[in-house]
Amino acid sequence: MRRRTRSSYSSYGTRGPRKIWKILLGILIVIVLIAGWGAWKVFTPYQPDETAVAALAEAADAVKVNEQEHWIGFEPAKRSGAGVILYPGALVKPESYAPLARRLAEKGHHVIIAKMPLNLPLASPDLAGEVLKAYPKEAFVIGGHSLGGVMAARYAAAHADQIKGVFFLASYPDNKGNLKDKNLPVISLLGSDDGVINMEQVQNGRAYLPANTLYFTVEGGNHAQFGSYGAQKGDNAATISAVEQWNQTVSALQDWMKESVDGAPKNQ
């Protein structure tokens, strides 16, 4: 009778399972790497471009940039009109809105850009409360870009007695941010060439806005140029420069605040 040697036992008894486990381990490693790469792509925020970085670093007597743990402040030397709390869009670094914020501050508005955890407005929708506590003697309007506007509206709906108005940049409210009966002035700005925003949701969102909401179209503007972080996936190319889009936005917001916010009694 043939005797089974140690080597033959090892070959038939363990080599097969070991090979299978190596294959399974290799597959698992590949899956983890793919998942990690996918998560990195999904959660990597849009970064401020050179123009935004320059707007943060620019030294000017008229505007002082004051960076805190939870926000970036643009403080005008001579304040005029309401302050502005801006919630960034999802996965957009707050510094990306520096050019817009600086232009508003140059008009006399104290502008606060919120720093959201993980660059997601959903992570800290009540961050505006910290700003209001830090500046109790100032009056603020609140708004945001894209998902930031949705979260800003939710805060305003829950704290209407603390806010003077609400603005939307390529955004809209949902049912949790219902402003219809809050007696707050509202303005909604949208680029005519926006390729990111869901227009059906924009239309549905109008049901949650007051009848006297001001709607402003930035002709030739797109979604990303409310900020300064380069092209955004799915967006259309703008037919105006980013500078022109910021200038139109600032002009519209300033006119709205002068007419509907600063000139009206609080919580009219």
UniProtKB/TrEMBL annotation:
Statement: the UniProt record of this protein carries the keyword Iron: no
Family matches, as Pfam families: Abhydrolase_5
InterPro entries per the UniProt record, alphabetical: AB_hydrolase_5 (IPR029059), AB_hydrolase_fold (IPR029058)
Keyword terms, alphabetized: Membrane, Transmembrane, Transmembrane helix
Domain Alpha/beta hydrolase fold-5: 83-247
The keyword Transmembrane helix belongs to this UniProt entry's keyword annotation: yes
Sequence intervals crossing the membrane: 20-40
Top-rank lineage group of the source organism: Bacteria
Protein's name according to its UniProt entry: Pimeloyl-ACP methyl ester carboxylesterase
